[in-house]
Amino acid sequence: MISQQQEVNTRRLSLYSQIFLYGDFMPLNFWINPQQCSVELENFNSDWKPYQPQKGDTGREGLSLTSLDGSLSGYPELQSLYEYTHETGHKVSENDFNKLTPVYDQVSAIREVVDYFKPYLGRSRFVRFKAGGHFPPHRDQSVQYQVPDYFRLFIPLNNTGENNLFFIYDGKVISYEPGRVYLFNALKVHTVFSVHNQAMTLALSLRLEQESIALAIKKLLVR
Ligand SMILES: [Fe+2]
């Protein structure tokens, strides 16, 4: 008899693998102007929150583009959801964080890409790094199942690029273009490390659905 767990994983895998048959780290035909983004974010200077503060000072702060209630409180969306669920017993998934915060209204630089994927948008945020700020090696997994029900976009913005912000993916330093939107398989080990002060990135989470995958594949830069 097929267990419920196996059934969920099999369904998700059939979707997830449709994307990553194409590659692991892929540029999309979207570009966000990093400079414009920084200027438009100035109104939110006091809204940045420590990112996973329980892990000590990892030199990074987050600003929510989406949250559970549309607020900029940072809780719990800037925590590890795995740990939040473990500690509180409340099950939350990436896809529950789907209310846009005021950042969406005021930052027009990101609108084209966000509007394109809007019905599928989950937990999404800007991250700002100090020099030495980093995400240690990790995989973005599912809390309950072996295959996640979301996939990730990574957008390097101001003060990123060669010799500023290192994206180490599956053991290799990735070369990327600041402002470019990348689709990547976040199940493989990745590390982000900034040697520049005030390096900024945007991470978008998208609900895994046939339609969201079709939209993403349509935007692959090389087709
Ligand atoms: Fe990650």
Task: Describe what this molecule looks like in 3D.
There is one protein chain. The longest helix has 17 residues, at 4-20. Helix 1 packs parallel to helix 6 (210-218). The chain has one domain (4-218): B-lactam Antibiotic, Isopenicillin N Synthase, Chain (Jelly Rolls). Strand 9 and strand 10 form a beta hairpin. A seven-stranded antiparallel β-sheet has the order 1-11-8-13-6-3-2, with helices on one face. The N and C termini lie far apart (41 Å). It has helices at 4-20, 34-40, 81-88, 102-106, 111-117, 210-218; strands at residues 25-31, 49-50, 60-64, 66-67, 99-100, 125-129, 134-138, 150-156, 165-169, 172-173, 180-184, 190-194, 199-207. The chain has six helices and 13 strands. Bound molecules: fe (ii) ion.
